[in-house]
Design goal:
The structure holds two protein chains of two kinds.
Chain A (H helix, E strand, L loop, with lengths): L1 H28 L14 H10 L6 H25 L19 H36 L4 H15 L2 H15 L16 H38 L2 H8 L4 H29 L3 H7 L4 H10 L3 H29 L7
Helix pairs in contact in A: 1-12, 4-5, 4-7, 4-9, 5-7, 6-7, 6-10, 7-9, 8-9, 9-12, 10-11, 11-12
Chain B lengths: L8 E12 L2 E13 L4 E5 L6 H8 L8 E10 L2 E2 L5 H7 L4 E4 L13 H12 L4 H14 L5 H4 L9 H13 L5 E5 L7 H18 L2 E6 L2 H7 L2 E6 L2 E7 H6 L4 H9 L39 H5 L5 E4 L2 E3 L3 E2 L4 E2 L3
Parallel strand pairs in B: 3-8, 3-9, 6-7, 7-8
Antiparallel strand pairs in B: 1-2, 1-4, 4-5, 9-10, 10-12, 11-12, 13-14
Helix pairs in contact in B: 3-4, 4-6
The chains are: A mainly alpha, B alpha/beta.
C-alpha cells in the first residue's frame, strides 16, 4: 500500500506539470486583453509600459517557467515565513494578480474561509443527511419512506441551485423576512448572538447546496445497501443469532460504505470549486466568485493559479479515494 | 446413535407458504419429522423439493413478508419455536442450533477477518471476553482441521480456499456447542475430494461433541456415507422415512426407488443410457389434494389423483406416503 501511494505521488508530479502547461496554453491562446479594463484616457505608450510591468513582454515559455517557480517555490517559502516568522522569501516576486496588483495567494487565503464555511459545511450536512436516508430506504425498500426519499432525490437532481436558491430567497427573505438574502462576509463571530446571525445567513445557501449532495449520496448509499442486503453473508449473520441492527449497521454497512466513501472523497474537490452559481445567488464572496471575476477581467495569473489549485486538489483526492478503497476493502491490495 | 430417547427437535405438520405476485406458493406441506439426540438425519430430495425452506422455517430465517410459516409446531427445548418471539429465537440461533450454508465462497463476510466472525457468536451468546473468545476461536479452528490456527484468525475469507472456508463455517456453527447442527448442502459446492474430507470431519466431530445433525443433500452417496436415518422429500412433503440401511435395501416409495435407480454404477457394464426420472417437480400453487408425484409415477392409479397419501408405517421406523405396494405391485392395504 505504501509503495503504491508513493508511486502514485511520484506520478502525479508530471501529471500536474502537464495540467499546468495545458492551462497556461489555453489561457495564452484565449482572446482577451488585460488592458481592456484600463480607461480609454490612458495613452497607448503608458498601456504598453503597464503591459511590460505585468511581465507580458517576455516569451511564453519564460513566463510559464517563472510562474512554475513562483508557484512551487516562492509561495511555499512565503507560507513558511508566515508561519515561522522567518525571512526567506523577502524580496522575491510572488504571483501577482493583474486586477488588484496584490499577491494571488493572499486573496485566495482571504476567500477560502467563506467558501469552506458555506460550501464545505453544505457538503458535510448533505453527506450526514444522505447516509441514514440511504440506509433506511434500502432496508425498507418500496416503503413510504423510500418513495419519499426517491422523490426528494429527484428534485435534488433536477432543480438547479439558481432556481432553488432564488426560490428560497423569495420565500424566506422577501415574503417571510426570516433570513437575510445577502451573505455578510465581514461578520465576525465572537459571541452567541453573532453566532446566531452567522447561522441565519448560512442556512439558505447551505440547504440549497446540501440538497444536491444529499440527492446524489443517498441514492448511491441506497444502491450500495441494496446490493449487499441480499448477500449470503447476511443470512449467515442472522443464523448466528445477531440482532437486526448488528446485521445491518455492522455487517452490511461496512461493505456498503466502501464505494460510498470513495464517491464522497471524489466530491471534495468540488467544494473548493466554490459552488460558483450558489455563491453568485447568495453573494458569498468565495473562491468560485473570485474565479468568475478573474476570468471576466482576463486576470491570467489569478485564473491560472486558481485552476491549478483545483487540479492539485482533484489529483490529491483521487489518490485519497484510491487509497481509501484499498484500506477499507481487504480484498484489494495494490502491491 | 438413536437410542429411543426423547427427540431433541420435533417438527409436526409444518406448512410454509410464499406470497408472490403470481399467487401463493406452498413450499412446505405438512412436514413432520423428529431428530433424536446424537443422530444424523439425512434429508434427500431434488432441487425444489423444499428441503432448505423447511429447515429455514424452523428457526425463522425466512424473510417474513414473502414467507409465512402458517401452521405446525417445532418443539425444541420444551418450547414451540414457531410461537417464540424474535428476540428469544435470536438467542437460540447460533447458540443452540447451528447452521451451515451451501456456498462457502459467499457465506462469509468479506470485510471482516475470520477471527471476528467466529468470535461474534461467542461474545454474544456466551458472554466471553475478547481474549477468551479468541482462545476459543483458535480451539475451534484447530478442531475443524485448519493448520496454524492462531495466525489464521486474522486472515480474511478471501485468503482461504473453498474447503477451508466451509470448515470455518462449521467452526462458527459449532462455536457455542449447539445441540443441533443443520447443514444445508454444505459440500455441494466443493469438489469430491474436499467433500470426503468434510464428511470425515463431521463424522469425527459427531463422535467428539455428540450433537444431533440434520444433513440436507441431493447426493444419495453422501447419505449412504454418514446418515443414520433418512427422510426423502418431494414437492414440500416427506414421502418416505427410514433408517439408512432400510432405505437402500427396501425402498418403498416410487420416487425413492427411481432415485436409487438413477445412480450410475461404477461396477459392471456401462449402461447405454443414464436412467432419469422424466418431468419436473411441481410448484404447488395450492395445498396439494392429490399425490404430487403422480405425473412422474409409473405406478399411479385413480386413488392417487383423488387423495394426497398420508404417511403409513411399513416397518420399524420406516414409513411411506404412497398407495402402491412394491411387494405386490398393487394398492397397499390400509
Amino acid at each position: 500500500m505504501l509503495t503504491f501511494t508513493i508511486r502514485r505521488l511520484f506520478l502525479s508530479v508530471p501529471t500536474l506539470l502537464f495540467i499546468g502547461l495545458v492551462i497556461f496554453l489555453l489561457l495564452e491562446l484565449a482572446p482577451g486583453d488585460p488592458m481592456a479594463q484600463v480607461p480609454l484616457t490612458v495613452p497607448p505608450e503608458v498601456k504598453e509600459k503597464m503591459r511590460l510591468a505585468l511581465g507580458l513582454g517576455e516569451p511564453g515559455h519564460i513566463r510559464f517557467m517563472k510562474w512554475l517557480v513562483q508557484f512551487f517555490w516562492i509561495e511555499p517559502l512565503n507560507l513558511f515565513d508566515h508561519i515561522f516568522g522567518t525571512g526567506f522569501a523577502e524580496g522575491k516576486l510572488r504571483v501577482i494578480s493583474w486586477q488588484t496588483r496584490s499577491p494571488v495567494m493572499d486573496i485566495v487565503m482571504q476567500r477560502i474561509p467563506q467558501t469552506l464555511w458555506v460550501v464545505g459545511l453544505a457538503y458535510v450536512v448533505g453527506v450526514l443527511i444522505a447516509l441514514p436516508i440511504g440506509i433506511y430506504s434500502a432496508y425498507r425498500q418500496y416503503s413510504v419512506f423510500d418513495q419519499a426519499g426517491t422523490f426528494v432525490a429527484m428534485i435534488g437532481y433536477s432543480v438547479p441551485p439558481f432556481f432553488s436558491g432564488v426560490l428560497l430567497i423569495v420565500i424566506f427573505s422577501v415574503k417571510l423576512g426570516w433570513l437575510p438574502s445577502i451573505y455578510d462576509t465581514t461578520h465576525v463571530v465572537n459571541d452567541w448572538a453573532s453566532f446566531k446571525v452567522q447561522l441565519m445567513q448560512m442556512i439558505m445557501p447551505v440547504m440549497v447546496l446540501a440538497l444536491q449532495t444529499t440527492a446524489q449520496i443517498s441514492r448511491f448509499m441506497r444502491a450500495s445497501m441494496l446490493d449487499n442486503l441480499n448477500q449470503d453473508y447476511v443470512r449467515t449473520a442472522r443464523a448466528k443469532g445477531m440482532t437486526e441492527s448488528v446485521v445491518v449497521m455492522v455487517h452490511v454497512l461496512r461493505n456498503s460504505m466502501i464505494p460510498v466513501v470513495t464517491v464522497i472523497a471524489l466530491g471534495v474537490p468540488g467544494i473548493f470549486g466554490g459552488a460558483i452559481i450558489t455563491e453568485q445567488v447568495f453573494k458569498v464572496n468565495g473562491i468560485g466568485q473570485l474565479l468568475i471575476t478573474a476570468i471576466q477581467a482576463n486576470d491570467l495569473p489569478m485564473v491560472q493559479t486558481l485552476t491549478f489549485i483545483f487540479a492539485i486538489l482533484i489529483v490529491v483526492f483521487n489518490l485519497i479515494a484510491d487509497v481509501l478503497y484499498g484500506v477499507l476493502d481487504p480484498r484489494i491490495r495494490y502491491d | 446413535m438413536p437410542d429411543g430417547a426423547a427427540p431433541v427437535l420435533d417438527v409436526k405438520g409444518l406448512k410454509t407458504v410464499f406470497q408472490t405476485r403470481s399467487g401463493k406458493i406452498h413450499a412446505v406441506n405438512d412436514v413432520s419429522f423428529d431428530l433424536r439426540p446424537g443422530e444424523l438425519l439425512g434429508v434427500v430430495g431434488e432441487s425444489g423439493s423444499g428441503k432448505s425452506v423447511t429447515m429455514m422455517s424452523l428457526i425463522g430465517l425466512l424473510p417474513s413478508p414473502p414467507a409465512d410459516v402458517c401452521a405446525g409446531q417445532v418443539l425444541f427445548g420444551g418450547r414451540d419455536l414457531l410461537k417464540t418471539d424474535a428476540d428469544a429465537l435470536r438467542g437460540i440461533r447460533g447458540k443452540r442450533i447451528g447452521f451451515v450454508f451451501q456456498d462457502p465462497m459467499t457465506s462469509l463476510n468479506p470485510v471482516f477477518n475470520v477471527g471476528f466472525q467466529i468470535c461474534e457468536p461467542l461474545r454474544k451468546h456466551m458472554g466471553l471476553s475478547k481474549a477468551a473468545a479468541r482462545n476459543r476461536a483458535v480451539e475451534l479452528l484447530e478442531l475443524v482441521g485448519i493448520p496454524d490456527a492462531r495466525r489464521r484468525l486474522d486472515d480474511y475469507p478471501h485468503q482461504f480456499s473453498g474447503g477451508m472456508r466451509q470448515r470455518v463455517m462449521i467452526a462458527i456453527a459449532l462455536a457455542c456447542d449447539p445441540e443441533v447442527l443443520i447443514a444445508d448442502e454444505p459440500t455441494t459446492a466443493l469438489d469430491v475430494t474436499i467433500q470426503a474430507q468434510i464428511l470425515e470431519l463431521v463424522k469425527d466431530l459427531r463422535e467428539k461433541l455428540g450433537m444431533a445433525i440434520i444433513w440436507i443433500t441431493h447426493d444419495l452417496g453422501v447419505i449412504a456415507g454418514i446418515a443414520d436415518r433418512v427422510i426423502v422429500m418431494y414437492a414440500g412433503q416427506v414421502v418416505e422415512q427410514a433408517p439408512v440401511q432400510e432405505l437402500f435395501s427396501n425402498p418403498q416409495h416410487p420416487y425413492t426407488r427411481s432415485l436409487l435407480k438413477t445412480i450410475p454404477s461404477v461396477s459392471g457394464d456401462r449402461a447405454p443410457r443414464l436412467q432419469v426420472i422424466e418431468g419436473q417437480p411441481p410448484i404447488q400453487m395450492k395445498a396439494p389434494d392429490a399425490c404430487p408425484f403422480l405425473p412422474r409415477c409409473a405406478h399411479g392409479f385413480d386413488r392417487c389423483a383423488a387423495e394426497n397419501p398420508a404417511r403409513l408405517a411399513v416397518g420399524q421406523g420406516h414409513d411411506v406416503a404412497c398407495f402402491w405396494d412394491p411387494a405386490t405391485g398393487g394398492p397397499r392395504h390400509v
